[in-house]
């Protein structure tokens, strides 16, 4: 049977998966966004539904002004004796290898009720540093923590990152390591990371992502009969597959495995799907997404996707075609915010309400505009389809020339385009600000409500109309190649989002911005 990849479109890298009876759960990275670590659920590995997040309280997640691509990296989701565990690391800077002092400490949170966000515990921090933490319970219940950090003795003479996988035993009640860290995998590429350890039959397996998350990305396997401390024997066919720069799916790696109830194994992994335009590859607007491929075993070594490259149509036993619907809408009728909205960084104050004006998301804009590293009053959703339209209806009566509310196409605080309403003397104006910082303004002869539209495709086209009119006035476009530019600092680890915002410039908005719906169609 054939099915469509990615199984979770939109930015969802570093997937980690677990099965409990008939239910599969999957977690991905969230970087600088809040809440942290989405938990998706599926019964068939193909259709996934967001059921909550592991980090929803400010006591669990404090990220303030990180570089783009900082924040929460690479969860591992595991289940042991009735309890779910999620590990992660939180970064303020994205390039720890340039400054050994900012290596993060990983942590885990746990719950016995994965269906309820509020049940996840407070974090317990590990004292082994690094990122890409993995937990493995051996048969005697000894717990092993592996993570990636820079080798203490860098390889002499070779300029490598020296990211290597280290392991120790850990006491989960305190997070304290109980053995010396042992290096279990380093790579000639200079990067061995994303470790996941499993046991199958008499073998322990160590999967590692190697070569870095860009074009050199790939996946290796080792196995051991002794245990997680090794010695580890490298597989005969490493890397397990290799997608290249001409393939429709690229940069693939960072795999995690799961066995279904029929004994069939599967791997989830990350990949990007750039688009070929005018003879060259355009960066994917979605960033890194979650893919699924079948795994079978030969001589107790895993063969991923029948040894073939990862592609958009994938074949696997027992699965079926599933088209992910582009249509999504929030009418803000629920007093609780729908799942799938993200804030940039941990919000410091409550700056929104769904109850003050029922049927509306009311934003009380805070003092940060969208260009600063702090947390503005902004709510974002991931873009998951290339061709779609984003639309929202807003009423906003600015009382100051230094406030604005509207809609945003968001990559990071260096590269975003916004369409917002402002006051200019006695006029109200609509202001389009492109990712290249060019500005177009139209004076509005306006009734209260305005519909803001972004058409997504090979470029993003911004338009608006007064709520009582049907004609859209198009005010500006930005090309995808501009919207996906790498930030001057930080990493392009995330993907495109669209959202709603209100801000004052170094002052709060004294009038609220009310949004009556937001939709993708
Ligand atoms: C992830 C790591 C990686 O933790 O990217 O370059 C990080 N490698 O495996 C963020 O997704």
List keywords for this structure.
mainly beta, Jelly Rolls, 8-stranded antiparallel beta sheet, glycosidase, hydrolase, signal, ConA-like_dom_sf, Glycosyl_Hydrlase_43
Count of alpha and pi helical runs: 1
Silhouette? globular
CATH architecture type of the largest domain = 5 Propeller
Ligand inventory reads: (Z)-L-Arabinonhydroximo-1,4-lactone
Number of domains: 2
Q: Total number of β-strand segments?
A: 41
* Spans where pLDDT lies below 50 across 5 or more residues: none
**N-end to C-end Cα span:** 29 Å
Name of the CATH homologous superfamily of the largest domain:
Glycosyl hydrolase domain, family 43
Keywords: Glycosidase, Hydrolase, Signal
Pfam families: GH43_C2, Glyco_hydro_43
Domain Beta-xylosidase C-terminal Concanavalin A-like: 329-521
Organism: Penicillium angulare
Written overview of the protein:
The structure is a single chain. The chain is mainly β and 521 residues long. The chain has two domains: 13-242, Glycosyl hydrolase domain, family 43 (Tachylectin-2, Chain A); 328-520, Jelly Rolls. It is 1% helix and 49% strand. It is built from one helix and 41 strands. The strands form ten sheets. Strands 27, 29, 30, 32, 37, 38, 39 and 41 form an eight-stranded antiparallel β-sheet that branches. A six-stranded antiparallel β-sheet has the order 31-40-33-34-35-36, with no helix packed on it. A hairpin with a 2-residue loop joins strand 2 (16-20) and strand 3 (23-27). It starts with a strand and ends with a strand. The mean pLDDT is 93. Residues 13-14, 29, 73-74, 131-132, 193-194, 209, 212-213, 254, 493 line the site of (Z)-L-Arabinonhydroximo-1,4-lactone. Keywords: Glycosidase, Hydrolase, Signal. Residues 329-521 form the Beta-xylosidase C-terminal Concanavalin A-like domain. It holds the Pfam family GH43_C2. Belongs to the glycosyl hydrolase 43 family. InterPro entries: ConA-like_dom_sf, GH43_C2, Glyco_hydro_43, Glyco_hydro_beta-prop_sf, Glycosyl_Hydrlase_43.
């Amino acid at each position: 049977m054939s099915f469509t990849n990615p199984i979770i479109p939109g930015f969802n890298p570093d997937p980690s998966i677990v099965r409990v009876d008939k239910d599969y759960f999957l977690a991905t990275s969230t970087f600088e966004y809040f809440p942290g670590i989405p938990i998706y659920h599926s019964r068939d590995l193909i259709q996934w539904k967001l059921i909550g997040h592991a980090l929803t309280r400010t006591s669990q997640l404090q990220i303030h002004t990180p570089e783009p691509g900082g924040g929460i990296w690479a969860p591992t989701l595991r289940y042991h004796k009735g309890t779910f565990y999620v590990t992660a690391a939180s970064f303020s800077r994205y390039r720890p290898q340039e400054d050994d002092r900012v290596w993060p400490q990983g942590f885990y949170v746990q719950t016995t009720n994965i269906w309820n966000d509020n049940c996840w515990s407070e974090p317990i921090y590990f004292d082994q540093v690094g990122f890409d933490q993995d937990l493995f319970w051996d048969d005697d219940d000894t717990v092993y923590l592996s993570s990636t950090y820079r080798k203490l003795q860098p390889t002499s003479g070779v300029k490598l990152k020296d990211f290597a996988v280290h392991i120790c035993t850990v006491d989960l009640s305190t997070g304290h390591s109980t053995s010396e860290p042992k290096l279990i995998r380093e790579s000639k590429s200079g990067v061995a990371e994303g470790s996941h350890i499993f046991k199958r039959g008499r073998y322990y397996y160590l999967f590692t992502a190697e070569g870095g998350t860009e074009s050199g990305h790939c996946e290796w396997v080792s196995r051991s009969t002794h245990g997680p401390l090794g010695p580890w024997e490298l597989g005969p066919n490493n890397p397990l597959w290799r997608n290249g720069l001409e393939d429709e799916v690229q940069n693939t790696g960072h795999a995690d495995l799961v066995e279904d109830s029929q004994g069939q194994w599967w791997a989830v992994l990350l990949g990007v799907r750039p688009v070929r335009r005018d003879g060259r590859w355009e960066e994917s607007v979605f960033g890194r997404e979650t893919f699924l491929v079948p795994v079978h075993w030969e001589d107790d070594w895993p063969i991923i996707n029948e040894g073939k490259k990862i592609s958009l149509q994938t074949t696997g036993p027992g699965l079926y075609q599933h088209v992910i619907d582009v249509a999504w809408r929030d009418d803000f009728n629920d007093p609780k915010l729908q799942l799938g909205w993200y804030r940039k960084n941990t919000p410091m104050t409550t700056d929104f309400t769904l109850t003050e004006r029922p049927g509306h998301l009311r934003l009380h804009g805070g003092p940060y505009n969208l260009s600063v590293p702090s947390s503005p009053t902004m709510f974002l959703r991931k873009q998951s389809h290339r061709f779609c339209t984003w639309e929202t209806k807003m009423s906003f009566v600015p009382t100051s020339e230094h406030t604005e509310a509207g809609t945003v196409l968001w990559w990071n605080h260096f590269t975003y385009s916004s369409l917002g309403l402002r006051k200019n003397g006695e006029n109200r104006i609509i202001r389009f600000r492109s990712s290249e910082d060019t500005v177009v303004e139209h004076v509005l002869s306006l009734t209260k409500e305005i519909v803001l539209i972004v058409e997504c495709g090979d470029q993003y086209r911004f338009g608006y109309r007064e709520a009582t009119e049907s004609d859209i006035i198009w005010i500006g476009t930005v090309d995808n190649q501009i919207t996906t530019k790498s930030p001057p600092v930080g990493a392009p680890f995330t993907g495109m989002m669209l959202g709603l915002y209100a801000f004052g410039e170094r002052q709060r908005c004294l009038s609220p911005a009310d949004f009556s719906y937001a939709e993708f169609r």
